[in-house]
Amino acid sequence: MAPNDKVEEMQIAGAEVFSCAVCGTRLSAPVREVRPPGEGEAWTPLDSPVDPCPPRMAPGTFARDPEPGSISWGAPPKGFGKSRAAHEAGVDFLLSPGDIIGTTKILGRWAGCCGPGGYDGPNLACAGCGAEVGLWTADCYTWLQVRLNGRLARRSPSQT
């Protein structure tokens, strides 16, 4: 094992993955929980001193959304239990767009001037079952991030 391989292995140890709670499709690469960046700790593309603008969450990390009420997720899929329907702080999850897998764009909600603004509701669906699992924002005035719906995203230890 090369020295860099050992470092990569240590970085992955203790990581988690997100999966669709409806069908089990994997929604993320292995990620580790960190505190969410504060208001002044992340840039929007309009105020970023570098191009391209970096995502709000560093690759390989996730955080509990401190303000989950800023998006309305709507009702869970038909037949899906409502036991996780409360949306208090910490229920939804913030990730870097590069860590998202197993999703498809909801094209009718993928609108904005420079990228998806997120104002039309969830714009990422599970590729396995179609559940509306996330919101990707990347417009000039929004943080570059993905929010996963805490009702529909299940966390589990990474098997990598």
Annotation, overall tally of beta strands? 9
- Along the chain, the helix and strand elements come as HEEEEEEEEE
Q: How confident is the prediction overall: mean pLDDT?
A: 83
Shape: globular
Strand line-up across the major sheet: 2-3-4-8-7-6-5
- As a percent range, the share of strand residues is 15-25%
Look at the helices and sheets and give the structural class: mainly beta
Please report the distance between the alpha carbons of the first and last residues. Answer: 16 Å
**What oligomeric state do the depicted chains represent?**
single chain
**Spans with pLDDT under 50 lasting ≥5 residues?**
1-11, 82-89
Task: Please summarize the sheet with the most strands.
Answer: 7 strands, mixed
Number of helices: 1
Estimate percent helicity: under 10%
Question: How are the secondary structure elements laid out?
Answer:
Elements (H helix, E strand, L loop, with lengths): L2 H10 L3 E5 L11 E2 L27 E4 L28 E3 L7 E3 L18 E3 L5 E6 L7 E4 L4 E5 L3
